[in-house]
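Bug #77: duplicate submission created two jobs. Keeping one. Sequence:
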Amino acid sequence: MTTVSLLALTTLSACAVGGDPSAESQNGPAPRNGADPALAVDNPKNLKGIADACRLLTPDQRTQLGVSDDRDFESLTNDIYQEPSCEIFSHAYNAMIDINTNNGGMAKLHAGKGKWDNFTPTEVAGYPAVRLDAQSILCRVHVGIADDQSLEIYYSKNAGGTPEMDDPCGFAEKIAVEALKNVP
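Kept job's structure:
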C-alpha cells in the first residue's frame, strides 16, 4: 500500500511559471527567469549526467540511512519527468529519489504552491527547498540544486526503525543531504 502511495505521489507535476527575465531592479539584474532571489541557487549542481539515481547514495550512506542491501534499491524512470528515479524499500520506510532536470526548478514549484495541501519553504544543505504535503507518516522534499533542476525525495514511514525515521520530512531531508554529496 505504501509503495502504491509513493508511486501515486510521483505522478503529480508542477504548474508553469512566467516572468520577465530581462527585468531589472534597483539592486541590479533580476534573478534568472524572473525568479524570487530567495530561490536562486548560489552553488549549482548538475543532475543531467546522472543515469542511475540509486548511485546517488554510496554503500556507506545507504547503511547510515538504515538500508544497505542492494536488493532494497530499484532503479526506475520517473513517469512524469522521464528521468532517473530510485525506489528504496525497507522495513522502516519506503522512499523515492527523483531527478528533475526538464520540468523547471524551485521558481516553477513556488508558482504552483497553491495546489499543495501544505507548502513549507525551507533549506537543505544550503539549497532552497520545500516540504510538500507533509503528514504524520509521509513527506515530499524538493531541493533546488540549480535554477532549473531539483532533487526530489518522497518518504513514507512504515514501522520500526530509528526515532529519527519517525519525522518524515526530517528524514527525507537527511536522504537529500546524503544524495547531494554525490551530485557533481
